[in-house]
Amino acid sequence: MTAVGIIGAMAVAVPTDPLHAALRDRFGHGDFREGQREVVDAVLAGDDVILVMPTGGGKSLCYQLPAVLEQQTTVVISPLIALMKDQIDALTARGIAAGALHSNLPQSAQRVVESAYRSGVLRLLYVAPERLVRPDFKTMLAETPPRRLVVDEAHCISEWGHDFRRDYLRIGDVASALAPLQIVACTATATVEVREDIAGRLGQRRPRSFVHGFARPNLRLAAERLRSEADKLSRLDEVIDPGDGHVIVYAGTRARAATLAARIAIRYPTMLYHADLGAEERSRAQERFRSGEVRIAVTTSAFGMGVDIPSVRQVIHAALPASLEEYYQQAGRAGRDGLPATCLVLYTAADRRLPEFFIESSSPEPPTITGVYRSLRSGGGIDPGAWSMVGAPDAAVAAISDAAGDAARAVLRDAGVIDPSGRVVDCDPRRLPVDHGRIATHRRLAFRRLDTFFAYLAGRECRHRFITRHFGEEGAGQVCGSGCDVCAPRRRDPSGDPVEAVDDTTVRRALSAVARLNGRVGLVRLAGVLVGSRSRSVAAVPGGTDIPTYGAMQGWREADVVELLRRLTDAGALQLSPPPYPTVSITQLGVEAMRGVQALRVADPRRRSLSVRGHPHDTRAGAGTRDLSDDEARRFAHLRAWRTRRARERDVPAYVVLPDRTLVELAAAVPATLDALATVPGIGPAKLALYGSDLLETLSTMSAAETVP
Ligand code: ADP
Ligand code: ZN
Q1: Would the CB of 362 count as within 6 Å of ligand 1?
Q2: Which pLDDT value is given to residue 81?
Q3: Rounded to the nearest whole angstrom, what is the distance from the C-alpha of residue 102 to the centroid of ligand 2?
Q4: Whose CA is nearest to atom 24 of ligand 1?
Q5: Which of 704, 644, 498, 689 lies closest to 677, judged by CA?
Q6: How far is 202 from 184, CA to CA, in rounded Å?
Q7: Cβ of 53 less than 6 Å from ligand 1
Q8: Could you give the CA distance from residue 171 to residue 169 in angstroms, rounded to a whole number?
């Protein structure tokens, strides 16, 4: 069978059921992402659902697609007006009728949306949580019941979570008034206990929970504890490497970020990105980063919202966030293109203080709250909008941080002691109507989350497994094998492994799998098919487990297969569609190689790659950082192949034969006599006796080959 035949046959087999058709025609997506299809099915079936996917994972589609197929409106509760607006704009642009109700909307516009809802023309209605207390809103829902209620950012309802919002508590009441009503809860960050809490508070009936997208096999996860800040910085210098993509470095504070950025900028174009940038500066900075003009962004935790750059090759934390959820959300910006990327935490014992400080200031103790109240009263009884603007703070709180002062102000606002207009209500400072017990619980839970994060950092368990288990994703319990520093510690020994080509049959099988699934999956899923993975994401590839090459590379690690596919792409046999979700397809060259018409040599990714640049254990200054000319590199590769044969014969590791740096010297000097060979660093009398004439012969055949045109 020819490749063209295979490709042609697959084109016919592309699924055309109504859901796929709607996905394509209404949303412009070629296929479902992992997990989406099942969720859509459950939503359409009327089940209560808890959907947990990382930010950007594609949760909205899971309720928007059902909504466009039905007659009744889906009501979505969403906490951020800005995000709501983005969603509505996107939906409207696709010709889907959607509206929003929130306090920023003029009265007249509200009335238009309400009557649109009542007449049933809206497919989706977004509402801000504050709306839930309004009787007119409840009446509207009672008179015209929605098809279902979707709760976005559903973890906000849980006090166990990190983002509790009091107004979210009302959702349960509204839902129960409309019972039985289907409820779909969506969140990016929910651990198993938070998930149970969400279901309980929303009054969901035996919800089906779906967790997807946390397992990211293309990420290499690592954490290193350094002894001092100075060690941390030099380690950062050592590891930072944007490759052909980008790096994000997280620093704890703005001052720290500025120092780090200045340091890194000596070697790479670097930018500083922090919360205080104006909207315009921010989008300019993002554009410079995206375009590649700047390769490294040093940032406080501000970086994120709305930034989705697929080719981030490293996310390095030089400061610690306060929870694993927060960490993984930031680290997860690496490798969105599905290609290998690294998430590294560099920390010292002292780095625990910063998150502790945030936790402490965000859950203020009773004396702080009282002191802040007194300060506001004596300052004229009006809250100026920020603690830093309070004129003469009460002596008891004169030295607290802005964060602590603002947290106390928020508590007072929540308790009604500061009213919505900013007026500070008159009451007995010793008897403020504040729930101190609740704040203490928050603090305790926050510290528990920090402890969990430290358990992750300690690295007693495969980091991938730790994360999938923490988020409760299916498949948790499997260790990654080589995708983290616990399973595969950094090798101290820089010995050169031989550069070997992947055998022909394997290359052709890999190409054939691409041809079968042409343009329908990305590298990672394709690798899953080739290794015969039983994961859901692979099972979800239409026809993926039926093709003859399913499991053809069993025994390979998925990450190595991804790397092989990447090398085949570099070699021109495969091509990737444009980001952000590149799918892989075969090229003409690839088809020829698959048929055996054209030979392809691809270095085996299971071996360490040819790296003679700057390995850290090279003691001789200069040798490690030298760049090889093309000829030298070719000789070096030949010498390595020679070394592999000798190492095999003698059954010793390659570096015992000769270390890399000696091969580099040989490749550069090309000695022609035993005497000349003896002057090459690393060739002592013993090596000379063992390999001298052998090496001379190898070197002479190489240079002979070079002079022949
Ligand atoms: P979340 O709500 O989980 O944070 P979104 O629903 O906003 O994520 O989706 C993130 C991005 O992914 C959007 O740009 C969306 O268009 C895109 N997306 C979602 N599903 C698919 C799909 N099946 N194929 C391609 N792109 C998708
Ligand atoms: Zn691991």
Answers
A1: no
A2: 81
A3: 45
A4: 29
A5: 689
A6: 9
A7: yes
A8: 5
pLDDT value, residue 617: 33
Q: What is the pLDDT of residue 620?
A: 31
- State if pTM tops 0.90: no
Low pLDDT (below 50) residues in the chain: 1-13, 491-499, 608-625, 707-709
Instruction: Report the alpha-carbon distance of residue 190 to residue 324 in Å, rounded.
Output: 11
Using the mean position of ligand 1's atoms as its centre, give its distance from the Cα of residue 30 in Å.
Answer: 12
**Gap between the Cα atoms of 136 and 127, Å rounded:** 13
Report which bound ligand comes closest to the CA of 37: 1
Q: Is 512 in the pocket of ligand 1 (CB under 6 A)?
A: no
Cis bond before residue 580 (omega within 30° of 0): yes
> With contact defined as beta carbons under 8 Å apart, do 636 and 663 qualify?
yes
Q: Whose CA is nearest to atom 12 of ligand 1?
A: 58
What is the spatial order of strands in the sheet that 124-127 belongs to? Answer: 98-101, 124-127, 74-77, 148-151, 182-187, 49-52, 208-211
Question: Angle at CA 297, nearest 5°, toward 583 and 349?
Answer: 110
| Positions of E strands within 559-689 | 574-576, 584-586
Q: Which residue has the tokens 């980001």?
A: 579
Identify whether 542 is preceded by a cis peptide bond (ω within 30 of 0): no
Instruction: Please spell the DSSP secondary structure of 30-58, one letter per residue.
Output: SSPPTTHHHHHHHHHTT--EEEE--TTS-
Atom of ligand 1 at shortest range from CA of 27: 16
Residue 33 CA to ligand 1 centre (angstroms): 9
List the residue whose alpha carbon is closest to atom 15 of ligand 1: 58
CA 36 to centroid of ligand 1, rounded, Å: 10
Residues with Cβ within 8 Å of 147's Cβ and at least 6 positions away in sequence, in order, are 67, 70, 71, 72, 73, 74, 182
- φ and ψ of 340, to 5 deg: -55, 140
Task: Take atom 17 of ligand 1 and give the residue whose Cα is closest.
Answer: 58
467 Cβ contact list (under 8 Å, min separation 6): 214, 215, 221, 324, 328, 456
pLDDT at 100: 95
For residue 152, the ligand 1 atom closest to its alpha carbon is 2
Asked whether 57 lines ligand 1 (CB < 6 A), one says yes
Neighbouring C-beta atoms of residue 654, cutoff 10 Å:
19
Ramachandran assignment for 104, one of left (phi > 0), alpha (psi -120 to 50 degrees), beta (any other) = alpha
Q: What is the pLDDT of residue 404?
A: 87
Atom 23, ligand 1: residue with shortest CA distance? 32
Q: Which atom of ligand 1 lies closest to the CA of 87?
A: 7
- Give the chain's length: 709
Mutate to test the pocket of ligand 1, among 25, 52, 61 (most ligand atoms within 8 A of CB): 61
236-265 exposure pattern, b = at least 16 Cβ within 10 A, e = fewer? beebbebeebbbbbbbbeeebbeebbeebe
The answer to whether 568 and 507 are in contact (CB under 8 A) is yes
How many degrees, rounded to 5, is the angle at CA 526 between CA 520 and CA 529? 115
Closest CA to 472 of 162, 203, 195: 195
**Residue 114 CA, distance from chain mean position:** 39
Ligand nearest to the CA of 462: 2
